[in-house]
Structures are given as structure tokens and as C-alpha cells.
Amino acid sequence: MSDHAAVAAQTSHTAHGAHHEALGFWRAYIFSTDHKVIGIQYGISGLLFLFFGFSLMMLMRWQLAYPETALPLLGKLFGESRMPGGTMLPEFYNELGAMHGTIMVFLGVVPLAVGGFGNFVLPLQIGAPDMAFPKLNMFSYWSFFLGGVTMLASFLVPGGAAQSGWTSYTPLAIIATSGQTWWLIGMVFLITSSLLGAINFITTTIQLRVKGLTFLRFPFFVWAQLVTSFLLLMAFPPLEAAAVMQLMDRVAGSSFFLPTGLVVSGQVAEIAGGGNPLLWQHLFWFLAHPEVYVLILPAMGIVAEVIANNTRKPLWGYRSMVYSLVFLGFMSFIVWAHHMFMTGMGTAMAAFFQTTTMIISIPSVVILTALIISLWGGSIRFNTPMLFALGFLPMFGIGGLTGLPLGFNIADIPLHDTYYVIAHFHYVVAPGTIFALFAGVYYWYPKATGRKMNETLGVIHFVGSFICMNVVFMPMFIIGLAGVSRRLFDGGASYAFAAPVLHWNAVSSWGAWIMAIFQIPFVINFFWSIRKGQKVGDNPWEATTIEWAAPSPPPHGNFAAPPQAHRGPYEYSVPGAAKDFTPQCEA
Amino acid sequence: MEIPYTVEIRRDTGLNNGKIGIWLFLASEVMLFGALFASYILLRTGAPHWPRGAEHLNVPLATLNTVVLIASSVTMVMAWASLMRHRFGTFRMYMGATILLGGVFLVVKYFEYSAKFEHHLLPSTNNFFAIYFTLTGLHMLHVAGGMAVNAYFWGPGSKLWKTNPAWFANRVEHSGLFWHFVDLVWIFLFPTLYLL
Q1: Which of A71, A77, A116, B81 fits a disulfide with A43 by CB distance 3.0 to 4.6 angstroms?
Q2: Using one digit for the tens of pLDDT, what is the confidence trace for A298-340?
């Protein structure tokens, strides 16, 4: 905005008084460059997409629990081409599966964890007035938005949305219907958004941290976001390259991922051939394994903040945690092919990648152990954010430990294509990451609104979700160990050997549907508390990190005067101090 | 509200924000082209027969284009150097030359592409042409993008020179870093596709 226009806008709004309302509605709330508004935009979009992705899965769970049975009431809404008479067609099931994964990972968790919490909290925690490139930040959000719209619109194209799994394995994805092209274009938007965000986060962290805030005085959350940003920056471009190549295969008729002599529906395909389907998997997992850490590291960051605050103790082994985090970020680039033990890529490759995979489990365990030891001897406050953070620890633990057999080439082979894998990574991402994200919402809500969310509704939300999560995913370990494939449209009903464990499918499904009911208190709480929540001061949790020194909600520009960091991030219960917390920016 | 270190340099890092930003962006670009080069190597080593670039592509035209791009990198540096000497007129001349040379590169590429299309040499012909069109196509998009940014600094963006010359010089420098990178990608593309 030119100076002249700014002055004009200011005069027209003098009636409202507050200086940060000088921008019009569109510039202040829609095309805003303020990191807090963008963070909230990302956060709410992410939550909506999480709910949408969850709904897709609830539909799939009907088909798995009661295969070939008409879905009462809702079934007819999806039309004859998808659910004739209310019974799901396999193509529609595949559509739901592919889009559930895509939406949860790229449109739900990452935007909420990195775009939402990263944008809102990180500049405040380092005492910055905003991100280093505010306009780029806005473009990042709108690029994400376009990507989301493209993905949603793909449900409406002939043949429906992408059906080749969130991994889009070739050659299947190349001969699929046009929804796959939309998927690829959507991904290009999402990748662009992540790149712009990552550049912004790294620059902001390095350049805009306040005086005295050295790297080892960063809150663990800042470290987590910094490492995550490097992963996004370096791992996403190869997927972009792969997406361009798959797009070429689909649109321009090239054969990057199509082997010579490919037979489609009994016909030899008319292609040049000579391509390599495994190349796609390598490029895809080169992104998607670091992506796993993009999903989990911000969650660890949130949990570390909440645990330090609610145990009223410094984090145990802060430095080891930081070094582990950096090492983990580096290692995550050289473990990708452990997703590919089943492809027959050779034992030498498998040996290398199983070794690196075992090595990367060490820093993860160091971080988790440090968080658990941090609880020792603390006077723990059991508020809602802390409950979710405490829920995260065992859930992530189960997810992580059940991953070890998958990291070994030999043990992976019988387990890999079964429900065991689904159970394993959902324990990491669903009750793991998503619990941490809920903890973050409850924890920083007072900073964004000046009001606390209701504790009773929060506890109901936590207890219900915690029980249901386990009811959903624990049976999948049983089904998976019995050897039921994870890619079956009927949940295994057509295989005799699966019969003894099939009843667990219904248990799991009912767990998911009841879990949906337990999200209602959260939704009510979220909106009700904006106006009616208990009013609180700037630092309701008596926390030490710098974001709590800003007013709640922070105005445009955040701090009245630039704060200064005088000490480390978690000076709780310092012997001899007057109160049990000493803020970082208190002289 | 002012974002610190937009123009001035932060003492402990020795950099301003834009400089870090552009280098991070270039790092991601290295990964983008790196993935494509890696794919090229994998496809080529896996192929029983791989065409020799010189037999199918126009080496003299590509050599010309190499010279054109290197010249444009030189003019880009001169444009920035002129700003550092506070000679705005010279800056516009060199910046204009940079944009024109970029244009020459694209025109030459256009003739190369149309000759291939005339002979029905397409991405669907074989994987050599598939990777040729993908790599050079993506590179051309980068050239066009760099030209657009440079054109902005040549035209409307140069207003900033009057109000904040230091910032304007920084932005031209960062745009230049990108332009040199695009040039460098071509230096790798040329032998890989045309000569090997």
C-alpha cells in the first residue's frame, strides 16, 4: 500500500481507534501479511481439512466393517456412479483412500503444525515483530489454498479424484483417470506453498531473533520448526521434479515411469517404454520420509513446551534433545528406501537402509526419553493441554516401537502390506501428532484470543479421544499380525484365513465413529470460548518463553518495545527466585 | 511496522534477510534440478541403448545459447556494479541488455524446439527426448521467470531507487544471484544433454 493510501485508510478508520485496524477488512483478515492472521488462517483451514479427511475415512470404515452392505441414510447421497443403492464401489473406496492420505498429510497436519503453529508462535517466541518476508507468507497461504481447492475440485471431475493411493505409485497412477492430473497440479501448489513457508521460517529464525536469544536459548519448539523447515526446503523439490515427470508421462506421453512391454488390461500399451517404475518410488519417498518427520517434529516441539510449563521444571536434557533433533533431521534424508523393502531393490540397498533406519531410531528415543524423564519429580498441573501432551508420550511410544520390526528388511517382508503398517504409522501421526496439535490449540488459544478454552469440555474431549484412538488402531495390529492385506476393498472378507480376526474391523469402525462424536465438545469449545471463555491475562500459564510477554491477542507488530532474552527458555522453579518461573525476557 | 535487517546487515550473521532467503531458495532449486539429473543418470544407466546427444540435437545453436547466457550473466553483474557506483542510467542499459539476452536465448530455443517438433521428435519418442524436453523446458521457465523479475526492476520496480537506493541495489543483487544460478544450470545441461 502506498503511503497516500495508508493515510487515507487510517483517516477513514479513526472512529475505530485501535491502530492495527487501519487496514480494511480484506487486507486485515483475508489478504493479510500479519503472521498471526496467516497462522490462524492456516490453523482453521488445517482443522477443517482434518475433519474432511476424517469424514472420508469414516465412510471407508463402513465398507470395511460391513462390506457389500448398503450404508443407511447417507449412502444414497453419493449417487449411482459411486454408491449404487448405497453400496460402495471399489473405485470410490480407492478414491476415498487416496484422498484421505493426501488430505490428512498435505492439507491437514502439515498446514496446522507448520503453517498454523509455526506462523503464529515462532515469531512471537523469538520476539520478532513479524516474519522476515510478510508478503511471501501471504502467498504461501494462498498457494496452499489453491492447492486445497484443486484437490477438492478433483472429486467432481469425470472418473472422480485420484485413486492410486497418496503415494501415487507408477505405472498405476499414470494409467488412472484424470483425477490424478488434478492431484499432481494440486501437489505443485502445495509444494510451492511449503517452499515459500520454509524459506521464511529459516530466515526469520536466523535473522529476527531478539538480542540475547542465542541458538541454545531457543525454546525447543523453535528448534523443531527450524529443522522441519530445512526438511521441507530440501525434500520437497525432488517430489516436485517427480510430479513434473509424472505429469509429462500422463500428458505428453513420455515413459519416465513406464517400463518396456507394459501390459494394461490385456493389451500391450503403446508407449516408448524404457522407464523405471521404481524411480518414482525413490523420488516419492525421498520426500515422504523426511515428511514423516515434518509431521512429528513440530508435535514434539509443542509437547516439549507444554511439558516444561506444566511440570514447572526445565526440560531434562535440553541440549541432548536439540542435538538429537538436528541429527534426526540430517538422518531423515538417508532412510527413505526402508519404505521399499518389498520392491526387490536388492539386499545391498536393503542392508544400507535398514542400518540407517536403526540409527535414526536413536535420536527419536532420546527425545521421547528426555520428555518422559522431564516429568520426574515435577509438580504436574493436569490441565487440558498437559493431558494431551501426556497422551502423546505413550501413543508416540507405541507408534515408534512398533516401527522397529518394519525397519528390518526381513521382519518387514511379512508385515509390510498388512494392517500392521497402518496401525504403526497412525499411532505416530493420529494419537501422536494430532494429540500434540490439540495440546497446542488449548495451550496457545489464550494468546490468540485473550480467553481460555473450557476445561471440562477439554477433559471430555481428551478422555473420549484417547480411548477411541486406541479402540480404532489397536485392533489393526491384531488384524495385521494375522496377515490381512491393507489394500483390500472388503477388509479381508474374501480370504478364509482372515475370518478369525474380521470381527475386529467393526470394533475399529465403531471406535472411529464414536471418536467423531467426541470431537463435538472441541468444536463447541473452540467457538464458544472466542466470546464466552474465561478472560485471562497475558501469561495465564505462568510460562517463561517470550511469546507470553506480548499482549493477548498481540497487536500488529507484536511487542510494544523489542524484548531481550536474558536466559534460557525453561527457567522454572529456580532455587531462591521469588516465583516459580523466571521469564526469558525479564531483566 | 518495520521488519529489521531488510536493508541493513545483522552483525552476528553478516547478512540481510533477502540474501539468506535467496540462497535458501537456490538450495531448494539445486534439489529440484538435482532430482532431475539423478533421474537422467538412472534412466540412462538402465537403458540398453541411449542416443548420443550430438547426433540428435543442434550443438552449434546450443553453443551459441551458452555464449548468450554467459554474456547475460556478465551484463547482470555490470548492472549491479553500476548501482553500486550510483550510475542509474548505466544500470538500465545493462539490465536492459540482460533481459534482451534472455530473450535471445528463448528465441533460439524456440527454433530448436520447432525443428524437433517438425521431425516428430517428442517426449513420447523415447526417454532421451522426454528428459531433454523436461529439463530444458523447466530451465526455460526459470529463464522466463528471471526475465520477468529483471524487467520489473528495469521498469516499475526501479522507483525504489529514488526512495531507498541501498534496498534497490540489494534486490538487484539477489535477482542477479538467481540469474547466475539459471545460467549455471544451463552450463550443466549443455554437456549432459548435447555432448555426452
Answers
A1: A116
A2: 999 999 999 999 999 999 999 999 999 999 999 999 999 999 9
CB atoms within 10 A of CB A211: 13
Interface test with B, best of A207, A276, A285, A564 (most B CBs within 10 A): A207
Interatomic CA distance for residues A309 and A187, integer angstroms: 38
CA distances, A154 to each of A7, A267, A365 (Å): 44, 28, 40
How far is Cα B147 from Cα B97, in angstroms, rounded to an integer? 11
**B123 contacts A279? CB cut-off 8 A:** no
Q: What is the pLDDT of residue A4?
A: 45
* pLDDT value, residue A7: 40
Q: Residue A102 sits in which domain range? A: 32-260+281-549
Bridge partner list, A496: none
**Cα A428 → chain centroid:** 11
Interface size between A and B, measured as CB pairs under 8 A: 131
Q: What is the pLDDT of residues B41-98, one digit of tens each?
A: 999 999 999 999 999 999 999 999 999 999 999 999 999 999 999 999 999 999 999 9
> What's this model's pTM, rounded to 2 decimal places?
0.95
Query: Among A203, A210, A244, A255, which would you mutate to test the B interface (most chain B Cβ atoms within 10 Å of its Cβ)?
Result: A203
Domains contained in chain B, number: 1
Q: How far apart are CA A333 and CA A570, in angstroms?
A: 31
Closest residue in B to A131 (Cα) is B3
Residue-number span of the structural domain to which B141 is assigned = 17-195
Q: How many domains is chain A partitioned into structurally? A: 1
Determine, for residues B20 and A233 on separate chains, whether the beta-carbon distance falls below 8 Å: no
**Are A248 and B31 within 8 A, CB to CB?**
no
Q: How far is CA A269 from the centre of its chain?
A: 38
- Distance of alpha carbon A202 from alpha carbon A86, whole angstroms: 50
